[in-house]
Write a structure and sequence with these properties.
Largest sheet: 11 strands, antiparallel
Oligomer: single chain
Structural class: alpha+beta
Strand content: 25-35%
CATH class of the domain at 6-276: Alpha Beta
Shape: elongated
Low-confidence stretches: none
Radius of gyration: 28 Å
Number of strands: 25
CATH architecture of the domain at 6-276: Alpha-Beta Barrel
Helix content: 25-40%
Length: 717
């Protein structure tokens, strides 16, 4: 029985590795997925497909694997492969400035044209995050079409049978064609037999209303070899070859085409306007925890009562930008990137975009890589090395411009502005050696950057509850070699993760000032399960800045309440930060003055450091004159009568020294989070806390003074 109706099948692949990912991880993905996929597809010249590699990957492949480019070039010449453009360093286009959107797209277009001798006509949209203003920038970049998820279309009420095609959309008269990606195909391929995919496509041919229906599969290339069990499935068991063969066997009704060929041959099915959206899982992950729980419950009720599948399409989730609300760390990183973008662009306007502007711009673009800004099943916000890479490139971009603007002289500048958009100002002290950013709320050190190497020393992620944490006590750490969608995996990478489900009551920063009872110990402080007697952590401070030769002095002052035991006392705190232009060093002088009553308890000044590897042998503590049973950065301990402590990072070649006057009791402990990833649930070292503890027994109008000095030097001169 012959078929009159046909299905046009478009096969697209998106390969990407985050900025800052380890070289061995990228090499493993290349050997398991990127290169074997290309080799197999090269055997089937009549099966066209579209390919997007992020700029990070293009750079890495160009340097390490010329054979990939040689094979790919042959496939491009015979019109088998269509290369898709995108933002070069894989940014979320809608949350970077327009000038950077166009710059990143242009950068990718130039690479494809100059290195691959191809003309890109379409755009892979990072994480399929669509906002209605995007057609304008895509048209300006010379791009004709873009891919999004079918959930975008279903959310405006279109039926599945109505979206097996492509459409026009526009913004202020700027037009772009838009293709929906079929969600069911994303889940079928490659986890089900190729015959199941063909059966699904046959059903579309039988049930569809149009004579030629267009069905798009475009998804992560890592699922063809990197995801658990898929390398064996796709290549050793021959899934990909069987898939290509069965496509060829059904060519009488199933035509495989590339996007450009489709838009050249067929008209779009009218115009459509899509709301802000991404794939349904992303929109769930973007919701706050309480809303995630409600949405999940609503979906279960709807599915149980009415038997409706795909309830996520009917119950709209969140909005990608909400990650910037859900995670303070994401918002901070994003706003630091935006401030660097303004600095780089401003310098470019002053100089005609000459000199070192191009170098600074490249660092800025790398700092816009999306992965470290969000968290779901993918998303690397919980991975310190990815956040660190973002900050590295922000610092590099800023350092290049600031060095040029200050003519390489020693300088010490201060700026007062609201960096993170919370309505309260931050104060920046900037020198050739470091950048200190203080928040007026809490007079805390939110960011401590060193310039050489470019590194944010205080990039700590708060421990917070995630919706999947309720699964942790029930997890097994038994790995499976079977290929399965990572959305369905529930595997612990180690035992005992539930004991690490600790949640912080405040954002971890340096120079956090706590007042606690004398009975509070290290364990309860580390677990954030103690009574906070003061209101200084997020209290508002007044401030003033003064100059003294090559130094700046930043004075924070606040009169706050301290309640320990039965008594409540008003305490005036002065906190004087002094920094110079000659080194990465600053001094903090505290003055505590009780206006009435007495205070008996302890002052704890909390400091955080993020040196990436808690158990690495080349990163450790030194307490001069003392021998520690464990000195690694993930160790926990208490030391009495300490006048100084060193943190050594031989990999970065730095040593951080903290000095205390008078001597203090020092608590040290790691900040470790439990998070889910594509390979399972894992414990991640975020950084370490060093808390200086001074006992207080103060009476009315009796002043208490303490001093902390922090310096960073090379470990090996």
């Amino acid at each position: 029985m012959g078929m009159k109706k046909k299905v046009i099948f478009i096969f697209g692949l998106h390969n990407h590795q985050p900025v800052g990912n380890f070289d061995f991880v990228i090499e493993d993905a290349y050997q398991k997925a990127y290169f074997p996929f290309l080799e197999v597809m090269n055997e089937f010249p009549n099966i066209p497909f579209a390919l997007h590699n992020s700029g990070i990957l293009w750079d890495w492949i160009s340097e390490n694997h010329k054979e990939y480019l040689e094979i790919l070039s042959r496939m491009i010449r015979r019109s088998q492969v269509e290369i898709l453009s995108a933002g070069y360093y894989e940014p979320i286009l809608s949350v970077i400035p327009h000038r950077d959107q166009l710059g990143q797209l242009t950068m990718m277009n130039k690479f494809i044209t100059n290195k691959l001798n191809a003309k890109p006509r379409g755009c892979w949209l990072t994480e399929r995050i669509w906002e209605p203003h995007l057609p304008d920038i895509l048209e300006k970049a010379g791009l004709e079409f873009v891919l999004v998820d079918d959930s975008h279309f279903k959310s405006i009420g279109l039926r599945e049978t109505e979206i097996r095609t492509f459409f026009n959309t526009e913004e202020n008269g700027a037009y772009v064609k838009i293709f929906p990606i079929d969600k069911k195909l994303r889940y079928l391929v490659p986890f089900s037999d190729p015959e199941e995919t063909i059966t699904y496509l046959r059903e579309i041919a039988d049930d569809g209303e149009a004579e030629n229906q267009i069905v798009v599969l475009a998804d992560d290339g890592e699922k063809f070899g990197v995801w658990p069990g898929t390398h064996s499935l796709c290549y050793k068991q021959g899934w990909l070859r069987r898939f290509c063969s069965i496509l060829e066997e059904n060519r009488d009704w199933l035509q495989v085409m590339n996007f450009s060929d489709v838009i050249d041959k067929y008209f779009p099915s009218g115009i459509v306007y899509l709301p802000t959206a991404s794939y349904s899982e992303m929109m769930q992950w973007a919701l706050p925890l309480s809303a995630q729980i409600k949405q999940k419950k609503a979906g279960e009720i709807l599915e149980a009562d009415s038997g409706i599948n795909e309830t996520a399409e009917l119950i709209k989730g969140g909005f990608w930008r909400n990650f910037l609300v859900k995670y303070e760390e994401s918002n901070w990183m994003h706003k630091r990137m935006l401030s660097a973008s303004r600095l780089v662009d401003g310098y470019g306007k002053e100089t005609g975009y000459l000199g070192v502007w191009e170098e600074a711009k490249n660092h800025l673009y790398q700092a816009q890589c999306n992965c470290a800004y969000w968290h779901g099943l993918f998303g690397g916000l919980y991975l310190p090395h990815l956040r660190s890479a973002i900050f590295k490139h922000i610092i590099e971009a800023e350092s290049i411009i600031e060095k040029e603007k200050n003519k390489s002289k020693k300088y010490l500048n201060h700026t007062i502005c609201d960096i993170d958009g919370d309505g309260a100002d931050e104060i920046l002290l900037t020198s050739p050696y470091m950048k200190l950013i203080f928040k007026l709320r809490g007079a805390s050190l939110r960011e401590f950057d060193i310039r050489d190497p470019a590194f944010n020393l205080t990039d700590i992620l708060r421990r917070r509850e995630e919706i999947y944490h309720n699964k942790v006590p029930k997890l097994s750490n038994k790995d499976s070699s079977e290929a399965a969608s990572i959305h369905e995996m529930n595997v612990a990478k180690e035992d005992g993760l539930d004991s690490f489900l600790i949640y912080d009551s405040y954002q971890r920063m340096s120079l956090r000032d706590h007042f606690i009872g004398s009975d509070v110990g290290l364990d309860s402080f580390a677990r954030s399960s103690y009574y906070e007697g003061g209101d200084f952590i997020d209290g508002e401070f007044s401030h003033s800045v003064s100059d003294d030769k090559n130094e700046k002095h930043l004075l924070f002052s606040r009169s706050g309440k301290v309640k320990l035991g039965d008594s409540e006392t008003e305490i005036k705190m002065d906190k004087l930060i002094s920094a110079s232009n000659s080194s990465a060093r600053f001094k903090v002088n505290y003055s505590l003055f009780p206006a009435n009553g007495s205070v008996k308890g302890a002052l704890v000044v909390e400091n955080v450091f993020s040196l990436l590897a808690g158990d690495a042998p080349d990163r450790y503590y030194i307490f001069p004159g003392r021998k520690l049973s464990k000195s690694n950065l993930a160790s926990t301990g208490e030391e009495e009568g300490v006048d100084s402590v060193l943190i050594v990072d031989e990999w970065l070649n730095i040593k951080i020294k903290m000095s205390f006057n008078p001597i203090a009791k020092i608590w040290r402990f790691p900040i470790e989070t439990v998070s889910n990833s594509e390979s399972g649930y894992e414990l991640v070292y975020q950084g370490s806390v060093i808390a200086a503890v001074w006992q207080l027994d103060m009476h009315r109008e009796e002043e208490k003074r303490v001093e902390i000095i922090v310096s960073v030097k090379q470990f090996r001169d």
